[in-house]
Please model this.
Amino acid sequence: MLNSLQKIKDSSVLDNDDLAALQDLMPGIEQSIQSHTIYRTTTEALFSVLNDLKFPTAASKYHQAKREQLVMFENLVGLSFDYRAAVIELEEIESKISSSEGFKLKKLEVKRDRLQFKLMWMRKDGQERIRELKMWAQIMQELAESDVFDLDNKDTDELKAFTLRYLWELPAACRAGNDVGGAVNIIAQARTGLAECERRNIKLPANLVERSKRLLKGA
Model:
């Protein structure tokens, strides 16, 4: 980051007072860059993504965590391609710099510096993606150890999770005012899921089933 400070100084975009202020701020900025969390924290993963309403069972949480991890891995692979392309572009620019002069040289130097800064952020991005991949792996391991379910086939336990979700949403749906379409969808999902769970003999909390049946009668 000291190199970045020099690049800003060389550009003359700041006056001396602002440069001095920025130099004083640099230790804190460097610390912010090193500790900055680009992607989700464990708390965000557990509460914003894998919350109990959307994913009420360990199995549903596990398979969603698997999906999140795979999306992050796909993005990491894409980042690696972008990084390789940027490195090649940097090499091309550096080769042209050696034989250029005047304004052409100055423009190439700006492109080089911009690419070097971009590559630095891409490396930081890659580190953060690895952190999140590890996080999802840890969450998946803990979920797998917490209950017995099919780790490979998402559909095996999906009906129970879906039904629980819509049964828990049912009271709010029955009180819905303006969003009639959304309420009808939740009621339909709850009714269908409950009937199918009974047909397959999938056990659900008795008090939840009783409350839901009462609500569905009046829906």
Observations:
- The chain has a mean pLDDT of 94.
- The radius of gyration is 27 Å.
- The chain has three domains: 1-36, 40-146, 154-218.
- The chain has eight helices and no strands.
